Structure formats: C-alpha cells, structure tokens
Amino acid sequence: MPAGSKGSILERDAGLRAICRIARERDPEPEHVFQVCRNAQAMFGATAKLHGLGPQELRILCAAALLHDIGHTVDVLGHHKHSRDLIMKMELNRFSKREQRIVACVARYHRKAHPKPSHAVYEDLAKTDQKLVRKLAGILRIADGLDRCHNATCKSIKAKISDGTVTLRVKQRRNSPTDIWGGQRKQELFEEVFQVRVHIEAVTSGTTK
Predict the structure, then answer these.
(1) In the CATH scheme, what is the code of domain 9-148?
(2) 209 or 124, which is more confident
C-alpha cells in the first residue's frame, strides 16, 4: 500500500490515516507524495541527533509531506503557496489549529523561497514554531528532491555526522543520478538551519559497504 507497511506511523495515527485518504483522493500524483513521506521519515530518523525532535514533530512532517503537492489541483505555477492555502482551509482531524498552521507552512516551503518573517501564515507563528517550520521544511525539501524523477528510487537513507558535515547515503532500488541531484539542489535550507554542510551520495542495492 502507498501508505507504507502495516504498523507504520501512517497506519497507527488516526489523523495521518485521514490525511492519507485526502492525498489519495485529491493529489494528482499520490504515489509521489507517499514516496516523499517515506523519504522524509527516513531523513528524520537518520538525522535525529542533529534536530532533536520527537514523535509529534514527525507526524507534522508526515502530514506536510503527504499534502505538499495538493496545490497542483489549483495551479502548477506557485502550487506550494496553493498547498499552504488549501491546508489552512481543511478539516485536519486530530491536529490542533497550531499544528495545522505548521503543517501548512512546512508544505509551502518544500520549494522556492526560504521562510521569511513577512510571509503569510508563517508571520503569525510563535518564534519557536517558526524555528520548527524551518527544521522540518529543510528535511522535506531534500526528501522531495530525492524523488525528482517520481520513480520511488530511494529505498533507505543513512546519515553520518562528522566535523560539521552530514553525509547522507541514499540506498537506491536502481541507479538514478537525477534523484541524487534533486536532493542536492534542495539542501541549502537544511544546511542553513542546522549550520552544517550536506553531502549526498548514492548507494545501489547491490552495494555491501
């Protein structure tokens, strides 16, 4: 199933199950957003020592990943802003209004401009929530980039953090330099937020190291 294996956070969490249904029904390419969600979960787990976030933040990240492209139903150009606006109008069961605003902003920042104090919705968040948006959006951008071809090549992600550099080793089901490039071109916000350099490299399924 697109939502992942039975017992995953998307299956256990009632609020996320409802968002999965929205994504399947309304997103023009649901397989992509489910893959981005899997990538985001892998990134979140691999970089836990860096971001220090927990289960509640992970569910917000998953919600944003599943809904980040929903704005395509309005218009492809500027769809990230349309995603934000559509999420703000939704009934998100099991998510507080505060969490809904954060989900909307994380989805909005999956591409294009980095968060700015003057941006709609973002400007109304508490400073701590603005910081959270930046962290989660930094993760989501790379997760989205790693499915640049929309072919679900990313199987797993491991991270090595050393001397101010985060090396992301992406195990791929099949070789896809374009997906690695997709992650690389969207790593700037992550680097800015966590004050690290990011290096992304591919590992094919047959590689043993």
Answers:
(1) 1.10.3210.10
(2) 124
